[in-house]
Design a protein that fits this description.
By secondary structure, the protein is an alpha+beta fold. It has one domain: Nucleoside Triphosphate Pyrophosphohydrolase, CATH 3.90.79.10. The longest helix has 18 residues. Strands 1, 4, 5, 6 and 7 form a five-stranded mixed sheet that branches. Strands 3-2-8 form a three-stranded antiparallel sheet, with no helix packed on it. The mean pLDDT is about 90.
Length: about 180
């Protein structure tokens, strides 16, 4: 891999629903590979604006609120065979700023059949499971994203309701049965 090639700047989005699960979608061009929304930053575009644009372009919705951003740019390298094909061979991989967003809409607001669809299916998944779902060369960056946001995601998950304790069966005189 030529180290002289630059990284393409991009953004990634962790979209968290009210149940504490994240949006993942299966790539049209790589069946079995699921990923979170992500994409490039246009010339003169700020990362925040790019994240909101990419969210809408890939999921069909803009119903989300940004709650956290990675402090640093996270990088991944493309495999050598993909470096020749992707982005006309100009880049060695991507460096991305990741955004954690809470989904503020209804599931009916999500529509992956967009103008330029990238996905064939979507679902909500456990955040910690997402690195196992992605193509191998992106696995490390997804682990970094999980590490960066795990505490914030945990704080945003709804608290589990405590199960009521079962009352002991009582006999006629109110004495517990044995």
């Amino acid at each position: 891999m030529p180290a002289s090639k630059p990284y393409r700047r991009g953004v990634g989005i962790v979209l968290l629903n009210a149940r504490g699960k994240v949006f993942v979608a299966e790539r049209i061009d790589t069946p079995g590979a699921w990923q979170m929304p992500q994409g490039g930053i246009d010339k003169n575009e700020l990362p925040r604006a790019a994240a909101l644009r990419e969210l809408h372009e890939e999921t069909g919705t803009d119903k989300a609120r940004i709650v956290a951003v990675t402090r640093t740019w996270l990088r991944y390298d493309l495999p050598a065979d993909l470096q020749k094909k992707a982005w006309k061979g100009k880049y060695r991989g991507q460096e991305q700023k990741w955004f954690l967003m809470t989904f503020t809409g209804a599931e009916s607001d999500i529509d992956i059949v967009t103008e330029h669809p990238e996905f064939s299916a979507w679902k909500w998944a456990k955040f910690e499971d997402v690195p196992k779902m992605i193509v191998g060369f992106k696995r490390d960056i997804y682990k970094q994203v999980v590490a960066a946001f795990k505490d914030k995601v945990a704080s945003l998950k709804p608290a589990r309701a405590a199960k009521p304790k079962k009352k002991a069966a009582r006999g006629k005189a109110g004495i517990p049965r044995r």
